[in-house]
Each structure stands twice: as structure tokens, then as C-alpha cells.
UniProtKB/TrEMBL annotation:
<keyword id="KW-0694">RNA-binding</keyword>
<keyword id="KW-0677">Repeat</keyword>
<comment type="similarity">
    <text>Belongs to the bacterial ribosomal protein bS1 family.</text>
</comment>
<dbReference type="GO" id="GO:0006412">
    <property type="term" value="P:translation"/>
</dbReference>
<protein>
    <recommendedName>
        <fullName>30S ribosomal protein S1</fullName>
    </recommendedName>
</protein>
<comment type="function">
    <text>Binds mRNA; thus facilitating recognition of the initiation point. It is needed to translate mRNA with a short Shine-Dalgarno (SD) purine-rich sequence.</text>
</comment>
<feature type="domain" description="S1 motif">
    <location>
        <begin position="455"/>
        <end position="523"/>
    </location>
</feature>
<feature type="domain" description="S1 motif">
    <location>
        <begin position="197"/>
        <end position="265"/>
    </location>
</feature>
<keyword id="KW-0689">Ribosomal protein</keyword>
<dbReference type="Pfam" id="PF00575">
    <property type="entry name" value="S1"/>
</dbReference>
<dbReference type="GO" id="GO:0022627">
    <property type="term" value="C:cytosolic small ribosomal subunit"/>
</dbReference>
<feature type="domain" description="S1 motif">
    <location>
        <begin position="369"/>
        <end position="439"/>
    </location>
</feature>
<dbReference type="InterPro" id="IPR050437">
    <property type="entry name" value="Ribos_protein_bS1-like"/>
</dbReference>
<dbReference type="InterPro" id="IPR035104">
    <property type="entry name" value="Ribosomal_protein_S1-like"/>
</dbReference>
<dbReference type="InterPro" id="IPR000110">
    <property type="entry name" value="Ribosomal_bS1"/>
</dbReference>
<feature type="domain" description="S1 motif">
    <location>
        <begin position="110"/>
        <end position="176"/>
    </location>
</feature>
<dbReference type="GO" id="GO:0003729">
    <property type="term" value="F:mRNA binding"/>
</dbReference>
Amino acid sequence: MATNASMDEFEALLNESFEMDTPDEGSVVKGKVLAIEAGQAIIDIGYKMEGRIDLKEFAEPGESAKIEVGDEVEVFLDRVENARGEASISRDKARREEAWDRLEKAYADEERVEGAIFGRVKGGFTVDLGGAVAFLPGSQVDVRPVRDAGPLMGLKQPFQILKMDRRRGNIVVSRRAILEESRAEQRAEVIGNLTEGQAVDGVVKNITEYGAFVDLGGVDGLLHVTDMAWRRVNDPREILSIGETVKVQVIKINKETHRISLGMKQLQDDPWEAVANKYALDSTHTGRVTNITDYGAFVELEPGVEGLVHVSEMSWTKKNVHPGKIVSTSQEVEVMVLEIDSAKRRVSLGLKQTQRNPWEVFAENNPVGKEIEGEVKNITEFGLFVGLENDIDGMVHLSDITWDGRGEDALGDFRKGDMVKAVVTEVDVEKERISLSIKALDGSFDTAVDGVKRGSIITVEVTSIEDGGIEVEYEGAKSFIRRSDLSRDRAEQRPERFGVGDKLDVRVTNVDAKTRRLGLSIKAREIAEEKEAVEQYGSSDSGASLGDILGAALKSDDE
């Protein structure tokens, strides 16, 4: 009976053991640390099963494992029995399963999660979120590019989950979102304490070619280059450096975009308030060239006060030259104030006005009739341009090149660079024009006709007989007497009745010094003699014939 009872009890216990639930593979179970040896923890997970886990699976990133014999831990059961007859278990997988449950809830509730950056991968970093590994893109590390992520490694800090897929095991997080949110709160608080026109201290964080960003204590403001100083600032680095503390004034606050405009010059006296009294019209001052453009040059009269020298006011003589060929940047120049517009903050300056008008100087030093010498600068179809003193030119018109022949033909005798002499015939200061004459150098005509005037009777010599008249010469000056002027009597108006070398008395009808021509006429002499005879010896009304009167006159001349 006793034996049968023992067998029954054993059968009951055996059946009970078969009926007991064995843990499912792929599930998380609780276990107890039995021992720690050879870098591993031996864990009893019950059901008469034990397994081994490397100690590193119990360590947080950058820390050593904190586990002791007797500790209860949760592990993941991969297989009930491995090749060594032990359960195949993992702490990492247990933590991962636990972490995914926790992270999915945080993602659904849009809550922050805590993690630590522990590795670098292509395009970003890996983050341990308490068992689950997430990807942190490089653009999501900070609000600004991070050159050295070393100080962030292993540091526990909050992250925002951007995307997660449990089936694929992908999690993407952002540190930047946390910083931006925190910064936005701080920014709103700082902006709320600022007012337009307020003077505050700030630290220069960044400098660009158009200005500088100044940290006002959690919020950045833009200090534009035009608001740094009243004077022209070509490069903000001239007056600012990164890390420097500066006092600025809040010019404008955009509540919607949280953009702040700052200024430094607004805290200084405006030099334009005294410009009208300090720089009188037509007064001359010394300034520095700060900028050169196609239309002129800007000259700084004092810090904050600039004037424009228009290209038309730069030189008396250089009309079509770029301003950069007349002045250079940073050059000290003397200028004259031509106009001031305080409302528009503009000063018109003149460079050429500080020097005498070269045409006025030339007119004073070279009166009409004076002989000058200069170099042929240019040859055109209507004359020669001759270089004179002070970079001005004079023009010799075609008609003033030679007395003999055509001016167009005479141009061929000249080349650029030739030195020529000429006589000043006209100076027009307003039109900036000087007229010269080369042919006026020949003064033989003036000498020949000295004392000869209209109405004079002179003796000439016939030099040529032509169909239309005769050519005669007087003291080296040649003239032409037309057929109609050869005699009062039409029958005697025949050129062939004269011979070369004949001496003739003629009357001067015109003296043209410009063309070097004498107007001569035998007919005019005869008419003048007749008139004089009539006046002296009678008149046609007395009954005397013209022959009688002329005969009496001739007889009187003979006596």
C-alpha cells in the first residue's frame, strides 16, 4: 500500500511539472543574479533554467556595469536551451523591448526623451535612448553647425523624436528642436523686456560684409553696416571684432518674426546738424576720397559727412575720363562746396573749382595776335588740334592753314606729334574754345598794304593776262582785276590790250586782311577822276562838254 502511495505522489508531481507553463521564447522574463565570473553574470530565470550575459550589457554608455549578486533583472529569452544546455538570454534585447514601449508612448504624446550620444555614423550620430538606438542627423545636433561634437558625447540630455518605425527598428531624433524651443521661450522673454529706442549692451557674435549679429542675452539683433557709424564703413571689421562688448540702441523690433534692428551711430551726435554752418557755399576744404564710381567720387569732409564730386566737376580739361584716373581711394584732395541739401544729407563738391580756369589763364597770358607753339594732338577733317599749356587745345581751321591752295590739301603736310607755330586769333572762355591760325604767321601782306586803304590810288604791275581779267602784283601781294573793272568804256574792257610787265594806276576798292586780297579797279579810278574833274572845272549844266572839262584837267596836270 505504501509503495502504491509513493508512486501516486510521484505521478502527481510529474503531471504537475508538465502542466507548469514554460516561458515563451522571444519574451521578457525576470531573473536573479546567481554569480559574476569571467566578465559575465549568471542569471537564474526560473523553470530550472540559467543563462549567461556579458557585463557590458548592464552598463550605460560611457559607464561601467552596476550589478551585484542577488539583483533581480529583466532579460530577453532568445532560446530555452542553447548548445551548452543553458538558456540563451540578453539584457540588451530586454532593455530594447522595454525602451520601444516607452518611446512609442512618448512619441504619441509628443514628449521629450532622454538619451546620450555615443557614436558617429555617416551623416550624423547614434544615440542611446535607454536601450533603443536612434539616429541623430548632423543638421539636428544644434541650431548652428557643430564643428566638434566631442563635448556632447556620453552626455545625458533631452531629445525630440521626429520619426520611428518599430517594425524596421528605425528612430530619428533631434536635439536642435529642444534647443530651438528653449531658445524661443528665452527669446520671447528677452524681447518682451526690450523697447525701441532703448540702449543696451551686447556681445558681437558674428560679422558679415553687411553688418554684425549682436547677442543681447539670448536673442540676436542685426547691427547693419550703415548704422554702425555716421561715416562710411566699407568693412564692419574696421570697427568691430567678435566677442567685443558694444553699446547699441534698439531701432526696431518685429514682434512677429522676433527680428531686432540695432544701431550704434544713433547713440552719437549727428554731424549733419552742423554741416550748413560749418561748410559755407564756395568755401574750400580738404577731404579724403572714400569711394569712386562711374559718375564721380565721394569725399569725406569729416567722419559722417561725405560729399559727391560729380565727374563733370572733376577736371577742366579731362571730359570723358573715368574718375578713377583723376583721383584714387584714400587720396587727400582739396574741394569746393557747391551745394548743400541738409534734408537729403547731400553735399555737392567741385574739384576743378579749386584751380583757375585754364582758358582764363591762357587768355590773360596769350592775347589775340600772339605767336605760340604747340604739338599737333589730333587731325580731323576740319582742321588741326594743337596742344597748349595746362592740357588745353587750340584749333587751326582748314581756312587758317595756308594762304595758297586748299586747306584740305595742306592737312596732308602735318602728322600727330609735329611741333607747329601759330597765331592766336580768338579765345572764347565760356565756350572753352581757342582759335589759331598758321597762315597768319605770314605778315608780308600786312607789310605790303601798310598805309593802303579803300579809295587809295596805287601803281601795280601786270603779271598775267587771262580771259576773265588780268592778274597784277603790288609789293608782292597779288590781286585780280576782273574784265568789267578794266575800263569805264566797255569797248576797252579787253584784257589783251594789256601786256605782262605793264604798270597801271588802279583804285583800291577793298582791303581784306583775312583773305589777303586787295580789291582793285581801273574803272573805279577813271570814274573817280571824272567826278573830281567835273567838281573842279565845271559841270554838265554849264554847257561845257566832258572832253573840254577833261582836257582842261589834263592841261592843268601838265602845267
